[in-house]
Design a protein that fits this description.
single chain, 121 residues, mainly beta, seven-stranded mixed β-sheet, four-stranded antiparallel β-sheet, 0% helix, 59% strand
Length: 121
């Protein structure tokens, strides 16, 4: 079984910063790409940032220049550093990872339970 657990959300004033973390654990053979999505009430889910196993990254236009995605050396934890936060960044943030399970030897996309980010004064 594979689990993704996020942490680091909270309430922050406009212009502030937050760092989200997501740790993958369980029966993992290999982790490929990892990323962050967000979903605000009444809006579609939005892919914010992706980091490949080799370290290359991609960002949504809404995140470029303000957010930075990274992974730890072991590759099992992904981070999202969010700076210059705006009220429109308020959403539930979910991490996702494409993981090859030791149990099935096949890859699948896994999701965390989400962490709430609220940007408000």
């Amino acid at each position: 079984q594979v689990q993704l657990v996020e942490s680091g959300g909270g309430l922050v004033p406009p212009g502030g910063s937050l760092r989200l973390s997501c740790a993958a654990s369980g029966s993992i053979l290999r982790i490929n790409a990892m990323g962050w999505y967000r979903q605000a009430p009444g809006k579609q889910r939005e892919l914010i940032a992706v980091i490949q196993r080799g370290g290359s990254t991609n960002y949504a236009d809404s995140a470029a220049g303000r957010f930075t995605i990274s992974r730890d050396n072991a590759g099992n934890t992904v981070y999202l550093q969010m700076n210059s936060l705006k009220p429109e960044d308020t959403a539930a943030y979910h991490c996702t990872a494409n993981i090859v399970s030791r149990d099935t030897l096949s890859n699948a996309n896994y999701w965390g339970q989400g962490t709430q980010v609220t940007v408000s004064s």
